[in-house]
Predict the structure.
Amino acid sequence: MNMIPNAAKAFIPADYKSAVKPVWCPGCGDHSVLISFQRALAELALPPEQVAIISGIGCSSRIPAYTNCYGFHGVHGRSLALASGLKVARPDLTVLVASGDGDGFSIGGNHFLHACRRNIDLTYVVMDNRIYGMTKGQPSPTTEPDWDTAIAPGGTGLSPFHPLVIALASGANFIARGFSGDIGGCAKLIVDAVRTPGFSFVQILSPCVTFRDDQQKSWKNLVHAAIVPETDDPSRAARRLMTDDGFNTGVLYRGHRKPYQPIPLAHSAPSHLESEFAI
Amino acid sequence: MTDSLQSNEPPKLNSVGEFFAQALAIEVEATERYSLLADQMEVHNNKEIAAIFRKMALIEAEHRNEIARRAGDALVAGRPASFSWTGPDGPEAIDCESVHYLMTPRRALTLARFNEERAVKYFEAIAAAAINPQIATFAAEMAADERNHVIWVDQWLDQLAPDEAGWDDDPDPPVHSE
Ligand SMILES: Cc1ncc(C[n+]2csc(CCOP(=O)(O)OP(=O)(O)O)c2C)c(N)n1
Ligand code: SF4
Ligand SMILES: [Mg+2]
């Protein structure tokens, strides 16, 4: 959560748009998530040069190219490692991280646990389409066990990963869920996530219309605002998230953990760093 | 997400300035959404639909400029609110998830028509609920503008042949990795 030096200046979502046209399939939920990012940044009145958007690999991870903030399209599954380093070194920047269910929970699963545990002041947005979209539709950790396709005949039969439960158990300070079709709602969640100090995790259900068109049709009707208000009590949140139907949206947990931010080194000149490595 | 014509409750507007800020925000969003959809279709080489969405964006941009002119000094300070809707999306913005890379002109224009009709209903509801007579007059004017857009889209639709079955058949479809 950064102080906003020039909050008086008004921004509009278009101020965060880059000249690069998205290559996502028309109808992909990620288009809407991009608009939510832009609206959230406008609402936060953050100058683009004070924001960094870091990602891994996947369709969802293409987001940084489509904004004119600082960005880093990193290595598959390593977005949180990159973002943690950046935030620790440059606490003045607002750092958002964009990922997918494959990038974030499969290859990047271990980084996810420890990013929650460290509680660095980051906003982690995972566009969950329960599939590896970019590599043509393999099942991901959040895929339903009975999703039957040519690549997993009869379904994987594997129990899905519960990202929100795992985030809570690992120490995330803010946990929310949105649906890409609710652009305004997701923008508000991102605003809230950025404003809450510490590690904020926002799962956005974002349909892949090319490989999982079946789910796009139903998600629209399945999502619903959580009927109980947000809680700061981890045990209540745990009970709620364990019994969650996967379609409750809104802020589901907001804790009070102090973010991890090491004191910057007094001597940070390159020569000093070199001396640290001297044998 | 916007299946219903009434998905956006009209907001409580306290002044003519607030009304114009809201109206301007709707038109800004509509312009941006049509441009975004035109970009998507260009990237996927559906040039015919890209041209339709580009034209709709141009019409919305003209409407946006016209509202700014009508508002004059009444417009509240600052730029329009970026997301003050009570519904999930702006009352005149096509749902991003309702488009398809092979969509036909008829499908694109049917979406546009639905959208313009939502805008008519939205402004009619503001006019009906307004206590301030000036807001009621301006909202009725806006509803009339949007009704003209509906008529114009209808005329365009009348010139089109019906869609053939299988319009979304792709001879080289994206396939799951085997
Ligand atoms: C080290 C490495 N392993 C595998 C890949 C192949 N790969 C690219 S994207 C991807 C999965 C992306 O899935 P997700 O994060 O859910 O993104 P989506 O495309 O669904 O948005 C994989 C396995 C890679 N790029 N690098
Ligand atoms: S393959 Fe799926 S996730 Fe990737 S851009 Fe297309 S619809 Fe979106
Ligand atoms: Mg995915």
User: Anything to note?
Assistant: Residues A 24-25, 28, 30, 59, 129, 133-134, 208-211 surround iron/sulfur cluster (ligand 2) (CB under 6 Å). The first helix of chain A runs from residue 29 to 44. The longest strand of chain A covers residues 94-100. Residues 1-7 of chain A have pLDDT under 50 and may be disordered.
